[in-house]
C-alpha cells in the first residue's frame, strides 16, 4: 500500500470505525475542490441550459455517497477514485436533465434539410452563405443555430468517453484495481477501435475537434465545407460511436 499522510489516514480510519457525520464533513471539505474542478472543466456542455452551482451541488451529493462507500482497505488513491465517480455522476445528471430545447432540435432538422435540398439543386455541397440565404436568415442567426446544435453532440461525446479517458490518464497499475476500472479500460479500447473504423472525414473531424481542440468554424475552413456540414459530420460520427458502444454493452449482458 502506498504511504499516505498520518492525519489523513487517521481521519479515514476514524470515519470507517464510527461513521461520525462530523468526521465525514471534514473529508467532504477536504475533497470538495475536486467537484468544482470537474464541474468547471465540462461547463461548456451545460452552461447555456443549466447553472454551475446546481451541477456542483449534485457533485457534492455524489461525493458524500463515494465517501460512504470507499473501502480504505483497498490500495486505491481516493482522489483518483473520487474524480472518476464524481465526473460520472455529473455527466449522468446533466444527461438526464434533457436541457436541449425543442427549438434547437427543430432548427437542426431544418438546417439538415436545407443543405440536402441545396446539394441536389447545386450539384455540390453548399457553403454557409448559401444555406443562410436559402433559409432567409442572416449569418449571425445561422451561426448561432450551428453552435446550438453542436452543443447536443458535445454532451453525447462526454457520455461516451469522458470517464474512460479520465481513467486512462490517471489510473496506475501499481495497486489492486476494482472490476469497474478494468471494464472501463476495455470500453475505452472498444471506443478507440470504433474511431479507427470511421470514414476518413469523420475521423478527421473528431480528431481535430477533440484532440487538437480546433473550433468547428475553423475545421470547416480546413476541410472546405460549411459549418453546418462540419457539424453534421461530427454528429454522424458520434452516432456511429454510440452504436458501437451500445452493441458492446449489450454483448456484455
From TrEMBL:
InterPro entries listed in its UniProt record: RNA_pol_sigma-70_dom, RNA_pol_sigma70, RNA_pol_sigma70_r2, RNA_pol_sigma70_r3, RNA_pol_sigma70_r4, RNA_pol_sigma_FliA_WhiG, RNA_pol_sigma_r2, RNA_pol_sigma_r3/r4-like
Keyword Transcription regulation attached: yes
Gene3D superfamilies, A to Z: 1.10.1740.10, 1.20.140.160
SUPFAM superfamilies with a match to the protein in the record: Sigma2 domain of RNA polymerase sigma factors, Sigma3 and sigma4 domains of RNA polymerase sigma factors
Record bears the keyword Aminoacyl-tRNA synthetase: no
RNA polymerase sigma-70 region domain boundaries: 28-100, 111-161, 195-243
Key words of the record: Cell projection, Cilium, DNA-binding, Flagellum, Sigma factor, Transcription, Transcription regulation
Record-linked NCBIfam families: FliA_WhiG, PRK06986.1, sigma70-ECF
Protein name in UniProt: RNA polymerase sigma factor for flagellar operon FliA
The organism of origin for this protein: Sedimentibacter acidaminivorans
Amino acid at each position: 500500500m502506498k504511504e499516505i499522510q498520518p492525519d489523513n489516514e487517521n481521519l479515514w480510519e476514524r470515519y470507517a470505525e464510527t461513521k461520525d457525520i462530523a468526521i465525514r464533513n471534514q473529508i467532504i471539505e477536504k475533497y470538495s475542490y475536486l467537484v468544482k474542478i470537474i464541474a468547471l472543466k465540462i461547463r461548456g456542455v451545460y452552461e447555456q441550459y443549466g447553472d454551475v452551482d446546481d451541477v456542483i451541488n449534485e457533485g457534492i451529493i455524489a461525493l458524500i455517497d463515494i465517501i460512504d462507500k470507499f473501502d480504505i482497505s483497498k490500495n486505491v488513491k481516493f482522489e483518483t477514485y473520487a474524480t472518476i465517480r464524481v465526473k460520472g455522476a455529473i455527466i449522468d445528471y446533466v444527461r438526464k436533465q434533457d436541457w436541449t430545447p425543442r427549438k434547437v432540435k427543430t432548427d437542426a432538422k431544418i438546417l439538415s434539410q436545407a443543405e440536402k435540398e441545396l446539394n441536389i439543386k447545386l450539384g455540390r455541397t453548399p457553403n454557409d452563405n448559401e444555406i443562410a440565404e436559402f433559409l432567409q436568415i442572416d449569418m449571425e442567426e445561422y451561426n448561432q443555430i450551428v453552435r446550438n446544435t453542436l452543443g447536443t453532440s458535445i454532451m453525447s461525446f462526454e457520455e461516451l468517453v469522458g470517464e474512460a479517458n479520465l481513467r486512462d490518464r490517471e489510473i496506475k497499475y501499481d495497486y489492486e484495481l476494482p472490476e469497474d476500472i478494468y471494464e472501463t479500460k476495455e470500453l475505452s479500447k472498444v471506443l478507440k477501435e470504433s474511431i479507427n473504423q470511421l470514414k476518413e472525414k469523420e475521423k478527421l473531424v473528431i480528431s481535430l475537434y477533440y484532440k487538437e481542440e480546433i473550433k468547428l468554424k475553423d475545421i470547416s475552413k480546413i476541410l472546405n465545407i460549411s459549418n453546418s456540414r462540419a457539424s453534421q459530420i461530427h454528429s454522424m460520427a458520434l452516432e456511429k460511436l454510440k452504436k458501437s458502444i451500445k452493441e458492446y454493452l449489450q454483448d456484455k449482458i
